[in-house]
User: Fold YozD family protein from Lederbergia citri.
Amino acid sequence: MRETEVFIDSEEIAEFFYHELIKRGYTPSVQESEELADITFDYLISKCIIEEWDE
Assistant:
């Protein structure tokens, strides 16, 4: 299996969740979308799908 470098931005995830939830009839706050993004990011780290980098 080859390794692929992927950059995941939690702000981009938050924006994605915000728009997807609105399309599905929910009215999330920006803070709620950011919390979901943080949870998603932590999940991906816990499953070793990504690793966190400090720049």
Notes: The CA atoms of residues 3 and 49 lie 11 Å apart.
